[in-house]
Hints:
The protein has helices spanning about 20-30, 40-55, 70-75, 75-90, 100-105, 110-120, 125, 145-160, 180-195, 205, 225-230, 245-255, 270-285, 290-310, 320-330, 365-370, 385-390, 415-430, 435-440, and strands at about 5, 35-40, 65, 95-100, 130-135, 165-175, 195-200, 235-240, 260-265, 315, 335-340, 355-360, 375-380, 395. The chain has about 450 residues and is an alpha/beta fold. Strand 13, helix 17 and strand 14 (about 395) form a beta-alpha-beta unit.
Amino acid sequence: MARIVQQKRQVAINPLKSSQPLGAAFAYLGVDRAMPLFHGSQGCTSFALVLFVRHFKETIPLQTTAMDEVATILGGADHLEEAILNLKSRTKPSLIGVCTTALVETRGEDFAGDIAAIRMRRADDLGDTEVVLSSTPDFDGAIEEGWRKAVTSMIEGVTRPGEQPRDPKKLAILPGWHLTVADIELIRETVESFGLQPVILPDISGALDGTVPDRWIPTTYGGTKVEDIRALGDCFQAIAIGEHMRPAAEALQARTGVPYVLFQQLVGMKAIDRFVTMLAMISGNRVPAKVRRRRAQLQDALLDGHFHFGGKRVALAAEPDHLYQLSTFFTGLGAEIVAAVTTTGSSGILAKVQAETVQVGDLADLEDMAAGADLLVTHSHGRQAAQRLGIPLMRVGFPIFDRLGSQHRRTVLYEGARDLIFEAANIFQAGGHQPTPEELNPFRNRETDNDSRPTSFTRH
């Protein structure tokens, strides 16, 4: 069990985490025709928008209530109502996801009451547009908590309550924030290969997959439809991926009675086998040939790649669930985790991270702990530390802005685990020392006499 070390410094030197409202907006971006709305100043929204655009290289719909000094003092309910009505009339979204920021959270306003009053007073103006709230102050938590709160709020605010007839072929998939666009596409394809129908919430693979629409669309396009969120109670089973998605799965179960299964990671062979076996049992079908072939490819990759991981020292910095997934992956191949840094100490998964200690901190802490490591694993902001330490950097998580195609990398299931093995092993090979023929000579270090001839041995 890992020991959790809380952060002692009062300031971040090289920040590791992204804010809660960014995480909530990220989840709302996975809903079709949605508009995330930051309740706060323009600066809070601009910061998140820059990170999204740099990571995805796409147009990101993101709006703000643009709180000024007077509204901050007197209260922002009027600004919130005006922003919601303007978005409804101008962009006609199916869902407006309100994310609070530190500015308004510090004042202690009753946001839930304000939104309930707006929805009641302006019911005719809002029509069928759903308005949901996530309480996400910047000064607390990180991207993982924001994503979790947004998904939970959509289930609690949109999904029809009460037990309903359940479709035995319909599954609710609740993916964690750390799954890429390609990961979610792969999960969908795998579930569908068993003859099942997945409803993924949120589905960023439909909204942030890099496609270019044939016309200007002011909201998100693609992703989970609001009608599907309302009908989640029809699902036979819910599958949550990542410990931070447990509250969302529990909310769905409490609201509709749909049972859930939680997978803390889908990168290890045992966990993936369990996932595939469950799909086979629910569907009553055999595992498709293409899935069995991908498993055989992962087995071969494990055989080919484990030589390059044995004894390697790896330093990790990521959000809690992502940190657990990465530590499981590297230690499973024989590497040692010499540094593990995360953003918040509130997650229960941190105790299971495959390291002696987990430091809650920033990238400066990672740099202090990673001296002598063979590989640094974190997002693009870790590139300066890697350069100063002379250690190669494997970019994971969010944001990755100095490489193209990060959203199309697979990191889960058989195919994703295989690709991760190849990526990390290739970095080890590129940075490793290749022995020369002289170094491989077994007689090179043999003792010699004074005239440089081999020492003679007396036969008895």
